[in-house]
């Protein structure tokens, strides 16, 4: 185990990585890819990012395929209308070209690529390269992949997005993560959730979208290409986490970082995780009593093992065999002399 000082440094470094992404620090992550599904939607994560962006007076632009207008401080672009791909890119550029720092959120990259036929390279060059802003895109993992009609050998859209992203955040339900951990501790097969179950009619499991918080499996891409992976827990924000908003600001600044490593969460770090107790109730009960009584324990301690006396001898005598002849033994003197 690493020394305590090294562990503290490791935790501080890991929290700093995710904090830079959530707080939109300069050059922290030009393109952040968020992966979610019906078992854990990314709405809590996006809400937290938007609040932090508005608290820093960042221009927030939401290109929406799935949601209506949410907050008056957000520049909302309804992409589900009659916009073509070129018109949509023009609207995005018009909303960020007059500001110093912007955040562009695409709530469905699947629809952006397949419905509007927008090239991700062109969008990235526009937002991250030309205007030095941050691009965040959401991709739903339970969407069926659509083959490329022009090039059958083209890689899937999700693979291209993962290749381009500088940070990948995968959303998991906290309850499902606890269930998987409980299964691992008992050497049982990990439970599958949602579409992975393969059960007819099941697309969202029980305990999906756990209200206690959201688990984030993060992969940070360094400029050298070496990735760093960590798993975090993000709870819902409270009023006490932010300072009071000053005049002219929508939200106050963040007081302290409340994103923690998953290993630091008490409900996850317990020796017996949540869900293991209920799993123990399913153990088959044996019809045999495998425990020993006090009398049986005393009898077991009194048993002399073979060659036990030989082990008490002095040096050089260890391992000698002690044998006492009985009445039924036939002693042959001539054979003994040979």
TrEMBL record:
It comes from the Eukaryota. Residues 325-338 have a biased composition (Acidic residues). Keywords: Cytoplasm, Nucleus, tRNA processing. GO terms for cellular component: cytosol; elongator holoenzyme complex; nucleus. GO terms for biological process: tRNA wobble uridine modification. GO terms for molecular function: tRNA binding. InterPro entries: Elp5 (IPR019519), P-loop_NTPase (IPR027417). Residues 316-338 are annotated as: Disordered. Pathway: tRNA modification; 5-methoxycarbonylmethyl-2-thiouridine-tRNA biosynthesis. Transmembrane segments: none annotated. It is found in: Cytoplasm; Nucleus. Belongs to the ELP5 family. The keyword Nucleus applies. It holds the Pfam family Elong_Iki1. This is Elongator complex protein 5. Its main location: cytoplasm.
């Amino acid at each position: 185990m690493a020394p305590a000082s090294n562990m503290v440094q490791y935790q501080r470094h890991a929290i700093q990585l995710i904090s830079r992404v959530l707080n939109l620090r300069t050059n922290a992550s030009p393109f952040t890819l968020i992966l979610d599904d019906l078992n854990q939607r990314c709405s809590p994560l996006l809400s937290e990012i938007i609040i932090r962006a508005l608290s820093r007076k960042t221009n927030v632009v939401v290109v929406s395929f799935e949601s209506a207008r949410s907050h008056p401080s957000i520049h909302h672009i309804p992409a589900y209308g009659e916009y073509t791909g070129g018109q949509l890119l023009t609207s995005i550029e018009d909303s960020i070209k007059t500001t110093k720092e912007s955040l562009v959120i695409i709530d469905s990259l699947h629809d952006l690529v397949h419905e509007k036929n927008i090239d991700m390279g062109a969008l990235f060059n526009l937002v991250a390269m030309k205007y030095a802003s941050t691009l965040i895109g959401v991709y739903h993992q339970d969407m069926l992949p659509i083959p490329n009609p022009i090039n059958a050998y083209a890689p899937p859209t999700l693979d291209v997005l993962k290749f381009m992203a500088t940070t990948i955040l995968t959303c998991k339900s906290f309850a499902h993560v606890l269930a998987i951990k409980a299964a691992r501790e008992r050497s049982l097969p990990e439970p599958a959730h949602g579409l992975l179950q393969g059960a007819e009619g099941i697309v969202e499991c029980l305990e999906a979208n756990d209200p206690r918080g959201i688990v984030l499996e993060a992969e940070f891409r360094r400029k050298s290409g070496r990735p760093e992976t960590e798993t975090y827990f993000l709870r819902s924000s409270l009023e006490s986490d932010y300072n009071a908003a000053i005049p002219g600001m929508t939200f106050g600044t963040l007081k302290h970082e409340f994103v923690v490593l998953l290993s630091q969460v008490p409900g996850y770090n317990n020796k017996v995780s949540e869900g293991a107790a209920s799993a123990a109730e399913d153990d088959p009960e044996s019809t045999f009593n495998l425990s020993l009584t006090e009398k049986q324990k005393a009898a077991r301690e009194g048993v002399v093992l073979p060659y036990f006396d030989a082990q008490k001898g002095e040096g050089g005598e260890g391992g000698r065999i002690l044998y006492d002849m009985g009445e039924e033994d036939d002693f042959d003197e001539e054979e003994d002399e040979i």
